[in-house]
């Protein structure tokens, strides 16, 4: 085993590797870009080395800087995590040329699976079933369009070096093919430095099932069963589970054999995942799955497989990389229970899952293990007070639940998500709770189109109960503040000699202005009047300064409230509710800007500009394409009008809220 390793990554996966290294007394070296100088993984490691500016291209994607840090600190090996340089064969070769160990597969294995077209040709030779499609070299749009016609619509365009949903476009009709191809090629170039795409048949009701494999340098290859990753949006996984629902033993064996055959075909060593697209129109069958790609690294969702096998995959990676054989055979492995993983992101679900940024003013999860097996496990690379920056993936945490049965594991997942609280950044927590409670998902009826089909119902939420508004009003007036004051009169806020003291507060909620009258009846006892309610409530603090016992109209509720600046977050009934104490002048300015401008919804890079000054546009017409988090986002006209000015150009790196296109003002 190694005595010191360097982790060439950041965030949750860097913390994950450090946690296992600690168990074996292995010292760890973290690397960090400027934006991560105070990051959790830096604090956890034994040593940390600065490697450059915040942009990944100038830091985490610089092999020479990583290798130099490794040599300077005396580390013997480099763990790449996932993303960044984890599947870069040139990096592996550079590491090994310096006499260091790469904790992962060989450069040859990565190269063999790095291009989807070449990988599929190799899989055909190995007898692994593949999806019909065009995997040739030509990138002539006419040739690709003709091949799509032969395959039959709908088709899927995929960047051959792609992954994580990047560089993928579903095309349902010939007229949309060229624009989709252009977008996939741009994303392929931006994300992987390779614009080449392939075209495949689109499986109408697919399931995404992957097989975890491990190989060593002694010719042994095993699989650690399957994960179902069908709950996706925009080709990115949202909730994963292991094993797959309704998986017959014969199909599991067939898929396991296909996955290990794929790994043996390239002499694989280390952790890897063979991904299959599966026909989900009926019961799973042995001739109903096809090779999609192989990820030659540890997967984000590996904890669900750890939960059902009882193994530590990072430990196995370290053992294999240090020259040890795998400590088990296929016959030694069995499935224990069921597990789910939900990915908590800083993203605005209502705006098409746009990545979000912000400071994590409040971050609270239920009792759980971290980076280790448990009924509830929460792996996170951030802490309260950390910034979700525009530079990297906006993941906040992975919530993993394990149980003896699928129902038990899912119930634990729902409970854990419902008791998680985050304030300061927009997140997908409420969406995850709604998805994990979805009737079809609970019954195991999953496919990759479920979220898109059910999106409207998943986004529909019951109105906040009146007591939430009442508590927000009390909090908006600062009446729950426990901070001691040297001013004795501060203890008498709301006191009146002859009658109740009443204060008024304005709150904003989802763009709507709300007015409340709050009367102080007694200590922590209030009467709140809104447009549709008149409530009496008592608020009792708990041991936490952010959690309260609320009694309202004879009913008791456990609630949470956080106020940061002018923002108020209320947590109740497994949901979060956001309010603002508005500044009237800022509110008026914002209304005018919204009607007359296109603003950047997030920091990003301007990829395309369609708008021109003087151009007449209609509501919904695309005006720009913004790239953020390596994904393209079209920004459209908010109303009919005429373009007054274009304030951004292709290649501009812009901040959140920047005005990109100005429209002529609307005449009153």
Descriptive account of the structure:
The structure is a single chain. The chain is of the alpha+beta class and 668 residues long. It folds into six domains: 4-103, Rossmann fold (3-Layer(aba) Sandwich); 104-131 and 205-336, D-amino Acid Aminotransferase, Chain A, domain 1; 133-201, Dna Ligase, domain 1, CATH 3.30.1490.20; 337-461, ATP-grasp fold, B domain (D-amino Acid Aminotransferase, Chain A, domain 1), CATH 3.30.470.20; 466-484 and 498-580, Glycoprotein, Type 4 Pilin; 584-663, OB fold (Dihydrolipoamide Acetyltransferase, E2P). It has an eight-stranded antiparallel beta sheet, with helices on both faces. An eight-stranded antiparallel beta sheet has the order 24-25-26-27-28-29-30-31, sandwiched between helices. Strands 3-2-1-4-5 form a five-stranded parallel beta sheet, sandwiched between helices. Strand 30 and strand 31 form a beta hairpin. The chain is globular and about 80 Å long. The N and C termini lie far apart (74 Å). Mean pLDDT is 90; it is low at 585-593.
CATH architecture of the largest domain: 2-Layer Sandwich
Beta-strand percentage range: 25-35%
* Corresponding CATH superfamily of the largest domain: ATP-grasp fold, B domain
Q: Gap between N and C termini, in Å?
A: 74 Å
Percent range for helical residues? 25-40%
Radius of gyration: 27 Å
Work out the count of structural domains: 6
CATH class of the largest domain: Alpha Beta
CATH topology of the largest domain: D-amino Acid Aminotransferase, Chain A, domain 1
| Helix count from the secondary structure assignment | 17
What does the overall shape look like? Answer: globular
State the strand order across the main sheet.
14-13-10-11-12-15-22-20
Mean pLDDT: 90
Low-confidence stretches: 585-593
**How would a crystallographer describe the biggest sheet?**
8 strands, antiparallel
Structural class: alpha+beta
């Amino acid at each position: 085993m190694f005595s010191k390793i360097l982790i060439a990554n950041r965030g949750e996966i860097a913390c994950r590797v450090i946690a296992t290294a600690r168990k074996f007394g292995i010292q760890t070296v973290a690397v960090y870009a400027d934006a991560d100088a105070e990051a959790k993984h830096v604090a956890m490691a034994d040593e940390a080395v600065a490697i450059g500016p915040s942009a990944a291209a100038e830091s985490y994607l610089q092999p020479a800087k990583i290798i130099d840090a490794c040599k300077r600190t005396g580390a013997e090996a480099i763990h790449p995590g996932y993303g960044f340089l984890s599947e870069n064969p040139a990096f592996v070769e550079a590491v090994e040329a310096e006499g260091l160990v790469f904790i992962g597969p060989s450069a040859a294995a990565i190269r063999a699976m790095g291009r989807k077209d070449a990988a599929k040709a190799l899989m055909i030779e190995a007898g692994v079933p593949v999806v019909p499609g065009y995997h040739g070299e030509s990138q002539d749009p006419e040739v690709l369009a003709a091949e799509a016609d032969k395959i039959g619509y709908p088709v899927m365009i995929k960047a051959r070096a792609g992954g994580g949903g990047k560089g993928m476009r579903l095309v349902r009709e010939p007229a949309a093919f060229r624009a989709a191809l252009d977008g996939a090629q741009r994303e392929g170039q931006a994300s992987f430095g390779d614009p080449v795409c392939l075209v495949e048949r689109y499986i109408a009701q697919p399931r995404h099932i992957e097989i975890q494999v491990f190989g060593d340098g002694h010719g042994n290859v095993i699989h650690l069963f399957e994960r179902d990753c069908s709950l996706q949006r925009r080709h990115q996984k949202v909730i994963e589970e292991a094993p797959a629902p309704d998986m017959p033993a014969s199909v599991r064996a067939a898929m396991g054999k296909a996955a290990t055959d794929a790994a043996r075909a390239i002499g694989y060593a280390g952790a890897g995942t063979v991904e299959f697209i599966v026909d989900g129109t009926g019961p799973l069958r042995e001739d109903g799955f096809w090779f999609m790609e192989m990820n030659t690294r540890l997967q984000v969702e590996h904890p669900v497989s750890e939960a059902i096998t009882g193994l530590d995959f990072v430990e196995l990676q370290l053992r294999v990389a240090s020259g040890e054989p795998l400590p088990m055979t296929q016959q030694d492995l069995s499935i224990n229970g069921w597990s789910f993983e939900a990915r908590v992101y800083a993203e605005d679900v209502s705006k098409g899952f746009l990545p979000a940024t912000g400071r994590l003013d409040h971050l609270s999860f239920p009792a759980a293990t971290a980076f280790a097996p448990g009924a509830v496990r929460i792996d996170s690379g951030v802490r309260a007070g950390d910034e979700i920056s525009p530079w990297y993936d906006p993941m906040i945490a992975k919530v993993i639940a394990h149980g003896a049965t699928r129902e038990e594991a899912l119930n634990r997942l729902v409970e854990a998500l419902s008791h998680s609280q985050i304030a300061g950044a927009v997140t997908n927590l409420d969406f995850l709770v709604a998805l994990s409670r979805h009737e079809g998902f609970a019954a195991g009826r999953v496919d990759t189109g479920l979220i898109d089909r059910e999106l409207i119902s998943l986004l529909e939420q019951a109105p906040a109960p009146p007591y939430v508004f009442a508590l927000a009003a009390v909090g908006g007036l600062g009446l729950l503040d426990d901070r001691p004051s040297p001013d004795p009169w501060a203890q008498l806020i709301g006191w009146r000699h002859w009658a109740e003291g009443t204060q008024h507060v304005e709150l904003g909620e989802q763009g709507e202005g709300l007015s409340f009258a709050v009367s102080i009846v007694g200590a922590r006892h209030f009467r709140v009047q809104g447009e549709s309610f008149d409530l009496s409530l008592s608020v009792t603090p708990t041991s936490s300064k952010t959690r309260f016992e609320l009694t309202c109209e004879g009913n008791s509720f456990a609630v949470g409230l956080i106020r940061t600046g002018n923002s108020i977050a209320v947590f109740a009934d497994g949901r979060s509710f956001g309010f603002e104490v508005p500044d009237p002048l800022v509110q008026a300015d914002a209304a005018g800007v919204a009607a007359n401008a296109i603003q950047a919804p997030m920091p990003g890079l301007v990829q395309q500009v369609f708008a021109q000054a003087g151009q007449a546009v209609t509501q919904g017409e695309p005006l720009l394409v913004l790239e953020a988090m390596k994904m393209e986002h079209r920004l459209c006209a908010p109303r009919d009008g005429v373009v007054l000015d274009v304030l951004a150009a292709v290649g501009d790196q812009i901040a959140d809220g920047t005005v990109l296109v100005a429209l002529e003002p609307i005449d009153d």
